[in-house]
């Protein structure tokens, strides 16, 4: 099963938009998804603070700032 990770922080409107896209696409594609908060993880904060929201597919960076649902579907289908 493919895993999508959304990295963001509370109060981030782009993160809210990304969460909606990730949730919908993962439900359609049968993928698992999780969310990580950069304010709770120093390593994630150092690596991604300028790019949030960041989406990883199976641990590899897929998108940042805006999540394209068609591109995410294609990544999950491959």
Q: Give the helix proportion (percent range).
A: 40-55%
**Percent of residues in β-strands:** 25-35%
| Strand segment count | 4
Low-confidence stretches: none
Q: Could you say which structural class the secondary elements and strand pairing correspond to? A: alpha+beta
How would a crystallographer describe the biggest sheet? 4 strands, mixed
**Strand line-up of the largest beta sheet:** 2-1-3-4
Q: Tell me, what's the shape? A: globular
* Topology pattern, helix = H, strand = E: EHEHEEH
Mean pLDDT: 96
Question: Count the helices. How many?
Answer: 3
Provide the descriptors you would attach to this structure in a database record.
alpha+beta; 78 residues
Characterise this structure.
By secondary structure, the protein is α+β, with helices and mostly antiparallel strands. The protein has 3 helices and 4 strands. The chain has a 4-stranded mixed β-sheet with strand order 2-1-3-4, with helices on both faces. Helix 1 runs parallel beside helix 3. The longest helix is centred in the first third of the chain and has 17 residues. It is globular, with a radius of gyration of 12 Å.
